[in-house]
Amino acid sequence: MKRVPKPVFFIVALLILLFTYAATFGIKAKNGDNTVTYIKGLNDIRWGIDINGGVEATFTPVTSAKATNKQMDSAESIIKQRLIGENITDYEVYTDYNHDRIIVRFPWKNDEKNFDPQSAIEELAATAQVTFREGKEYTTETTGSDGNPVYKTPKGTTASKIVLQGSDIQSAGPQMTTDQTTGKSTYVVSLQLSENGTKKFADATQRLQNQYISIWMDDVMISAPQVQDVITDGKCQIDGGSTGFTAAEASSLANKINAGALPFKLTITDSNTISPTLGKSSLNAMALAGIIAFVLVGLFMLIVFRLPGLIAIISLLGQMALSFAAVSGFFPFINSFTLTLPGIAGIILSIGMGVDANIITATRIKEELWAGKTLDMAISKGDENSFSAIFDGNITVIIVALILMLVFGPTNILSMIFGASTTGSIYSFGYTLLIGIIGNFLFGVVTTRLMTKAVSGFRFARNKWLYGGAAE
Amino acid sequence: MRTFHIRFYENRKIYFSISIGIMLIGLIFNMIFGTQLDIQFKGGAVIKYAYTGEIKAAVVEQTVESAVKRNVSVVINSDVKSASTSGTKNNVTLSFAGTDSLSLANQKAVQKALSTSYPNAKFSLVSSDSVNPSMGQSFFAKCLVAVLIAFLLLDIYIAFRFRKIGGTAAGLFAIVALLHDVAMVYFTFIIFRIPLNDNFIAVVLTILGYSLNDTIVIYDRIRENRRLLGAKVEYGTLVDNSINVTLTRSLYTAGCTFASIAVVFIVGSVYNLSSVTTFALPMMVGIVTGCYSSICIAGPLYVMWENHKLKVAVAAHSAKAKEELPKAPAPSPAPKPSNAAPSEPAAQKTANKPSAAAPKPAPRRSKSSKKSRSSKKKR
Fold this sequence. Notes:
The complex is a heterodimer. By secondary structure, chain A is α+β, with helices and mostly antiparallel strands.
């Protein structure tokens, strides 16, 4: 047997422990108030919506004819714009042109207190008819939930004379304005009118000097500014009346107005929501399960295999750390990966499967010792004989894990037939299973052997009993 | 060092009956209860709310039905532990009849109606699922195709890998073992009345990979032992020996994997996480059956096949010998040729292999048997 220098054991073990530490906690530094993350740890893992809570919904246009690709694209971009408007950046949107579906998935925001996913989904698909009308005559006045009066249903000239319609508006966006005198910031919705709209608006503002033009959203009057100038550049703003808009109100209104440009109405065919509290409970439960499973398997290895068992535990730590690292974005060349509950189950499953390589090698060493080989002979024989079995044991699971990823991934080999779907939570399972198996190869074979050979150089570790042989 | 001496081949009938028995039970359950598909696959709607205080299922049912005009079944889980906060929670799950999705407006109407009937219960949404039947069906089809692809790829791997170990027959038995495991996982879902969902696909695929590797390890040992023990050793003994030698490792690995996933199941049950338990329970069954099928099904089947081949070869041999005898009176002439005809090619096939009836030179055999004896002594 080629001797491995004794210190190698400590070097390898130390490296694994360091790697485990870094992959678990990450490496961060405080730079003033900012925490700079050099290496990502467990806390930086992107959780799937089954853990973080979140929403998944499928939108389909309500049209008798098939929507064109261009229409689907514009619907997709509107949905994306609204998501950004809601300050949701961690979204996934898939458009399936063949089946006219847009699938949206986004996690719940961490700071969100009110869990109202149904409204969130509805808002994404909502359309609203914006009209600019002459005068400000209304039928009913009620008091809204915020204490301000709500004016509903236009009447008289306001009902009959429409200045601008939704189709005259090219785009709408929220904008912050600061009052020059008071310094108070309020939000407005600024509009860019179309060519036709610009002309109509210029005529109307010319004609209605010092009169009112009211702005209606569906049946509700949201604002009624007095015309002061002739507006010819096609730009105008809607302010929120006396109280002004909040940032959220302004962006919500802008989104609704933009939706007027949607080529069709969107309906929600599928929806799936999970509350963050349920997800948090699941995560903690799975973490607990993972720790218990690790301890159980570790104890088993230690009792059955003694010294190789101890080495197996160190290797298993490394394997776990690799799994963490592969999902958290620890390595710059591997993107972080959304981890779901089945994904965590995959990691825990690979704790059990992961000791396979160690079990095969340690059992072989034990067999050779009982067959009367010397310790060195037994270790090198055990290594030789076990490799093909380890390889066999893993290759089939690798095939399966790859299929899981290929089939349940965001764009996959079956997308052409069955259309795009969101990354099912199973995708994550395939990934962690795959990483677990690779880790098993890497740590269960390479580092375990290095450590076993190195440690057998120590005088105290010469006793065959430590390797499962007869006591000397 | 302890080694197992279990006579797997002799006990094969027990194992076969166990497997067939479980499958029969599964089939009976299947016929009585049918196959339930999760709404993921067939479409439909399920909503889960958390609430405080006491509510009555019948009242909830009536309220919801009158709100959305759709039949609903109500399940109440009270005092559910949470792993993130102390104290317990009450959950109520509404499963809507039919395969149609439930519009968001109706979902809101449900919550509103419930809050009106129980103003103090503070219903809050835990999760909601509403799937359109056509989406569900296409997802289901996709999942089935995934399983087929996996099965095909594994077959290709088996064909490639088993050329060395036991030929086509061994490969076929490996596939039988795989089908056995898929059936067991399926019947687990049926017997425990878990609707088939994407977890089912994940478990089936994982078990396919897991079970196959066990079978390969055993067949690999059979090949190795054939070289070691010589050709004259009976197939039953050879296979039993090979299984017993690999049994330690199989049991240890399966045990560790089983323990890990069992922990997940137990913790999941404590916190009533159905998405976790419906994954972990079939996986536990799959790991046990994956290990079991390789040892108790694939191994004995292989022996039966090889013994059958031997018998046919011997029969063909003796038939030939009888035909060569000049004074054969031929009391039953009809069955003989029909017996001999199909066995001829088989006899030729087996004769090509060193393992079959062809006798081996003696010295090599005695040497190898001595070797095995000496290694036994040391144990």
